Queue: 4 jobs
Job 1
Amino acid sequence: MNRSFLFAPGNHPRRVEKAFALGADAVILDLEDAVAVSDKEAARKPVADALKRNAVGPRRCRGYARVNAMGTPYCFRDLIEVIGKGVDGIVLPKVESAADLHAIDWMIANLERERGLAAGAIDLMPIIETAAGISRIDRILQARSLKPYSGTWRVRRAAFGAADYSHDLGLSPSREEPELSHARERLVLASRAAGVEGPVDSPWFHLKDADGLRRAVERSRRMGFQGRLCIHPDQVPVANSGYAPTPEEIARAERIVAAFREAEAKGAAAIQVDGQMIDYPIVHQAERLLRAMKGQD
């Protein structure tokens, strides 16, 4: 599942090692915002070593690296020095065009080939966090329809970056963040239209407001997001529980599927379950939830 992606600054060894044991579905070792310019080059090798080291034996979670944006002097060398065994994915910030993804895909594909990694094994998760990125989101995600260099499209989901997006537009979002609803809706819609997974939501920056985070997670999940970027360990269990189906939801989905299959065998395609009318769209949604719980979606 992709409920929680926990950031850890790549230049803090103790926090890096601790991050892998905190129960997140994935850890993102950061070379971008969490690392000062003066330390960016030095942080690359420790990040690569940590990902390789934590891949030995049964890994408790996946390991990603967030490289610097393509428009910086650091991105190219970040990829060269970080990609190798133990890297499950690359997080690419400030993506603004399909060309960005194709360029990075080309680089990753060649590094996979050169370093003996399976083609397409490394996930690429773009963060959409500017006005240009949101305005072009359909074209960015539809780029999957073009033949990629790796032979398989490696972008399985996108993430939203609310802080940079707000800065870019001059927004001052309130705690309930209605000012960001349009961008989130665009990202969810474009993801579905492109046939990729539901997106991953932005970090929650109000670290003292746990109730606000729970409300944000609930809104986010209802809107179509599948998980959240986390910037503090305390956010991980909230994301894990908030984006996972509840036992009641799973049981209801099982009742819906079983009742509908029985009715369908008798020629009926519209029934009632728990007082709600059930037809094919509702059944497909229930089946999708159950597939996700089995790791098949």
Job 2
Amino acid sequence: MMDGTAPVADELRPVSGRNVWYGPEMARRDDWIRRLTDAEIAALENMVVRLDATGIDIGTIDTSQMHVPVLRALMDEVRQAVLHGTGFILVRGVPVERWTLRQCAIAYFGLGSMLGEPVSQNAMGHILGHVKDIGYDYQRPTHRVYQPAARLPYHCDSSDVVALLCLKPARSGGLSSIVSSGAIYNEMLRRHPELAVELCRPVYRDRRGEGPAGADPWYAVPVFNPMPDGSLVTTYVRSSIRKAQRFPEVPRLTPALEAACDLLDSLAESADIHLDMEFRPGDIQFLNNHWILHSRTAFEDFPGSGQRRHLFRLWLACADGPPLPDVFTRVWQGATANGRPAGIRVPGVPLSTPLDAI
């Protein structure tokens, strides 16, 4: 609870709102797919050509270079959906096939900057990330879950918003799976409220060697964070919970906590709750990390390195993001100038926008 005391089941209440939804209902709708208009594509291409010609450093692109009314109107729609609506949207039709990799990054980074401040995604200071199979094993403590081709467990990232631009899809598989954390919370309260309580207590996680100077290599934050206004903020990465067990100072996982995580995982995997969507070249998916857990099905890639599945990724700190518990920026992460989660910042590491996947 917000005062630091452990909750009991009778204190927990279901949450409601547009960000509490079920996958089958969303699959019957297409209002969460926003197709670019011809005018928006033309404006985006003009912006890309203009900025590319200046030789601009991609990481310096911000709203001061984005005085394009039609694109601002587009991103206002994205903002409304992601920060004040269902928590997600898929923008379709970015003409990536006509551009160089640098031009794709300019378009993507420019649009993202109109929604929030790009923050670091790893200890290397990357504010433009790559989601691509580079042969890593996410069972290893320091390897990240987006690097292999295996099925990913449901999780949240360390920012207000995560955005993915599809440059090249997989040969097969690689569907994006998302689920409302509010729907999972409500189902846990209905079925096993005593397990929901377990996830409202601080849960220890591994920083994976990406902590700020002087910080412990682990931290503790609840999975479910009921807020005073009746909303819910969620953060969950089960692999980091398991990996934290390598530290002797961290309390051992209890059967109750394991059962709670098992139930959360099974609910997220349920076809009655989550939503699957395909990625086409030029799709940008925007997700609110505080309201949505995301995953990806396993995929088979093309054999040639130039055709492998490849997505750009942004983590965005949004000044008008939902209210968050103090623990998010006090214990877990640092804060941006606007007081939002600052991603993964390591002192002395400059921010960068690499165009290579490694």
Job 3
Amino acid sequence: MKYLLILCVFTSFVFAKLNIAVSIIPQKNFVEKIAGEKANVFAIVKPGASPHTYEPKPSELKEISQANIYFPIKIDFENAWLEKFATQNRDMKIVEMTKGVNFITMKKHKHHAGKEETIIKPDPHTWTSALNVKIMAKTIYETLIEIDAVNKEFYRNNYLNFLDEINLTDKKIREILIDVNNNSKFMVFHPAWGYFAREYGLVQFPVEIEGKEPKPKELIKIIEEAKKENIKAIFTQSEFSTKSAQTIADSLNIKVLKETPLAEDWSENLIKMANAIANNN
């Protein structure tokens, strides 16, 4: 009976899955590629919601309290919640998924005491780059084998397979964009494609700044610049208003294309974006 009890405890431990929390849907895909069936992975920000302003629900806070690992990604809502998550679950290992990433900087304007301050902050949309995802994959792999060394070989095989998938995705994108001129501009409502643009020699032309619709005067300037650049389409996403984008599209008689960087299938999504740029260049 004693040995049976020990065996049951050992079996429960061996087959227990890790509970892993991430901030956004694409991260869930990355972790699942490497952790496979050894982990339950959940994303805090649900589809259709903006990760810049998200407030976790009680059900999501409960999941955080049961997590073994949390991978933040430097997205805006974490600024208000990361410390609370750490306090709520002191046993949870918090590992910044983007460590080692070469960040693009963004300017943010802040009004304080009647004065406007310019703050330089890192662009959080790191997952739109194949190179960045390789860096993240390494961080995920190293974290998993540290927490669960017993399954190191399993994680290693999945990690190598994922690297192959990333390389193939990158190759396909380069083939799709082969006839697109270097430094070609593509118009986006929300500036979420900076890393994608940097990696493939493109320039994103954003409409909104810091999540705000442009004012009428700014909108006129944007439309004039878009005419000069011969912009043929504007990319929007469901997480943000499309009012200004539609106004620009109507003025220029161009298409509005919905492409969200927050889709679950990261590889398919980036290939889809490359095709849309190539076809509208």
Job 4
Amino acid sequence: MNGNEAHGTMAEAGLVPQRRLLERLIVGNTDLERLESMLRRFNLFVAMDAVHHEVRHSNFLAYLLDPRKNHGLGSLFLKRFLQAALASRREPGIAPVDIELWRSEGTEVLREWKNIDIMLRDQANRIAVIIENKIDSKEHSNQLQRYFDVSEHEFQGWTIVPIYLTPGGEPPSDSRYVAMSYAKVCAVLEQLAAPAMYPMNDEVRLGLRHYAEMLRRYVVAESEISELCRRIYEQHREALDLIYEHRPDRQAAVSQLLEALITEHPDLELDTCGKSLVRFWVKKLDVTALRQSANWTPSRRILLFEFDNRQQELKLFLYIGPGPVELRRKLYDIARDKKPLKPLDAFRHKWNAIFSRHFMRSESYEKSWEEFEEILKTHWNQFLTADLPAIIAILEAERWIFQEEPTLQEAPIDAV
């Protein structure tokens, strides 16, 4: 056996334990199968990207709490919600049994009243309910006290019921508030959505069930998904660490895709590139007047398109780079008056972005690579067919750019 064969045999032997780790993770792993099944199951609120958006949770809860909305529940959810919130309250005040007898059909439900997430206002019973809702954020700026004080001032002589709603029922900073967990919201929803428990429209029942399932999966403190993930990781830590080590680098893949798109276009040329920045220029604009930047890239081009490629965002800019101040000022002034060009800031002596286009936002990075690539290419084609021709036409109309004239005297370049 020669040296290469021996080295190859040792390398293959080193791969065997890793392969076995992955096999134990994948083959016959009922927890993993359960997790994949849950993630594959369609859920309306997951599809709407509502999981981590407090505003969307508040909007839906406010809708269900409003007896006048068209969900057909009347004040049923309102009563069950308040009873669940107040069940463990020890202080004197409204008891759960009082809520059952409460004629609440006239309750007003307000969103963002005085910055309060949800305000319930019942004029007939002189009751005001504050609901401060937190999903991923924490309370701040003494807001609980401020909300209670403004409500107490507005509704003098009324009964104020303040509720602090969080995934795990975290204790509020203001002891006057009742801590309520999303697990209690789930329990109310599941009780209402149970077959034959309450007469209601099938579509409403389905909506309640989907919302409760989403909360159980992702929001409540000890969600089913979080428990499954912890158990899988504890049992297969080495395999999962190995997978993480070899995970795809989305940022690098985006950079490579951008370079390929630019290279295959006959009118464009790559400039300096890296993982986070991809620069290119337009061959029609490759003229002497625009090759006067000694302090930027080796190409000396003063006008360059630049992709700002971040981990969760992709934007395209057209920059005026460092160069003669007179030339930079003339290009800047052109951009002030001609769309789609638009300077993003005041005139500076080094760099000025005079065009920007958002290609990809954070939500696109949650999609599969195939979907992500399709969206990026759609934006690229829109840029090529709309923005780029307009920008070229604007610059071509400036005949002085294309005249062979002496290079403008280089002025000192000072950062602003």
